Amino acid sequence: MITFKRVSIALSVAALMAGCSSGVKLDENANAGNNNGGANTSGSASGVAGVDLTGGQIAADGGPKGVGRVVYFDFDSFVVKSEAQGLVDANARFIKADAARKVTIEGHTDERGGREYNLALGQKRAEAVRRSLNLLGVSDSQVEAVSFGEEKPAAAGSNEAAYSQNRRAEISYR
Amino acid sequence: MNTEHQSPLHSLQALTPLASRRSLLAALAASPVLPALAQFRVEVTGVGLTQLPIALPSFRGEEGAPQKISQIVRADLERSGQFRNVDASSERLDETSRPDMAQWRQRAADALVTGSITRMADGRFDVRFRLWDVVKGQDLGGQGFAVTQADLRLVAHRISDFIYEKLTGERGIFSTRIAYVTKAAKRYVLWVADADGENAQSALSSTEPIISPAWSPNGSELAYVSFEARKPVVYVHEVASGRRRLVANFRGSNSAPAWSPDGASLAVTLTRDGLSQLYRISSQGGQPTRLTQSNGIDTEPAFSADGKTIYFVSDRGGSPQIYKVGAGGGAAQRVTFTGNYNISPAVSPDGRWLAYISRVGGAFKLYVMDLDGGTATAVTDTSDDESPSFAPNSRLIVYATKQGGREALMTTTLDGKIKARLAGQGGEIREPDWGPYQKY
């Protein structure tokens, strides 16, 4: 574990230096891949693997490179699913690595139901992710849980395909 | 208040108590206005048994006038559910006519309104009318107004109020205002419009969502939730000046503002202590006092008219239901028992009714509950109803719904028999809140 950490620091320094010399556009592209959540599709020119686990590289949004930001929820559920645990772990490590880092957890619902009640349900999802981070040792002072309710759907449409994309909490580093 | 016609040559300020409203409208006019944005269309979906038949021939001079006064009044009265229009399109009468009552009785009209509109030398309009009780053959009085073109619709609504009050004995709500929110492309706009949806004026436009507008009890301010800071925050917005102040911007989400009847404080939903709970805060801002202590969601507070009770939504029992609690907090009592999803309570100003949204088999329906007996009735045949709000005379409810896949605002009588739709809207339209009687 200790050696792993050293690698991660080295990588993070490299990433910072790369950030200095390369243009903003590159980072933006990398970020666009990350925002789709889950897999690291942006790749790396050097071909170095393992960035997902270290969380050491910083994406354009200020968050960890190659790590998803979106936790999806089942219908009427406020439980962080086991399949999201890796994403939460990686974000937790990243946030803990720098006490100055601040994140906002933005909870969302699908369009069904009242706007204010959905705002409260979205808050419950954001809170669930905040608690998960907290259990992993992230200080509450670094995290704010807020809700957008049904106001900011990720996918348009009144069908389950869209709804399942919209029932989510986003970890925002902006 | 009998047959004497008030002189139309007085200024509006001297003649009627419209002055403060007019200056308010003048201030509002500075903000951008989308022309022909909103048109109320009355859709009678049921038959009221006690509708009073009234004849409203076109006012003399109306053809060339910028607003068809008699049409606006007819639509107002019809939308109220209390009146039925008797065709009088062929008649040429004005407020000086002595109508043949026998003839109007034959046409089954119980009341008749005659009037005129004349452009004056200074460019303003002289609007006069007279109301007749056809059954008794009695002149019930009239009024005259000298106004600018911009105030003609307001004059028509004042005429509707006069007629409504004379014939029903209750105060009319036609010259009140509603607020609502539209979303078109990526632009959210908070509008202030006449109670018939016309004359909509933008109070706020934003690229981020705006929800839950709520009129202050004196009708001068709107509280609402804006997401402009990338989180929900409660503002109070002075409508005439556009001045805004942050009232609740605590850690987490801030939402669901509801005014206490004295206007001094707001009940709001805050998540500063974790889950959504109710708090009370001065309408000037400051430190909130917690009102509810549950381990679930408590939100959507709504004050009773006497200010002693707050109705709200809580899922403390496992599903969202409406509860009530004393305005200072304390033990909550459950109010709704049927169904497993009851939200968005609105209490009528007379304290007799509770309007709310209930999910029934996947459909979201507007219900009206008699608070004395506890019986609740669905009053719509739509399935996406939202955000009910009572007119200040407790006779109508405005709500949002979907018609033909598009969002629409409707008004309905409490029995659901007479509905009117706000049509011609360019985007999605939602979150209506009916303002109070205007104070003059």
TrEMBL record, chain A:
Residues 149-174 are annotated as: Disordered. GO terms for biological process: cell division. Its main location: membrane. CDD domains: OmpA_C-like. The keyword RNA-binding does not apply. InterPro entries: Bact_OuterMem_StrucFunc, OMP_bac, OmpA-like, OMPA-like_CS, OmpA-like_sf, Pal, Pal_lipo_C. Gene3D superfamilies: OmpA-like domain (3.30.1330.60). The keyword Transferase does not apply. PROSITE patterns: OMPA_1, OMPA_2, PROKAR_LIPOPROTEIN. Residues 1-26 form the signal peptide. Residues 60-174 form the OmpA-like domain. It is found in: Cell outer membrane. Keywords: Cell cycle, Cell division, Cell outer membrane, Lipoprotein, Membrane, Palmitate, Signal. GO terms for cellular component: cell outer membrane. It is a lipid-anchor. It holds the Pfam family OmpA. The Tol-Pal system is composed of five core proteins: the inner membrane proteins TolA, TolQ and TolR, the periplasmic protein TolB and the outer membrane protein Pal. They form a network linking the inner and outer membranes and the peptidoglycan layer. Part of the Tol-Pal system, which plays a role in outer membrane invagination during cell division and is important for maintaining outer membrane integrity. HAMAP family: Pal (MF_02204). NCBIfam families: Pal_lipo. Belongs to the Pal lipoprotein family. This is Peptidoglycan-associated lipoprotein. The gene is pal.
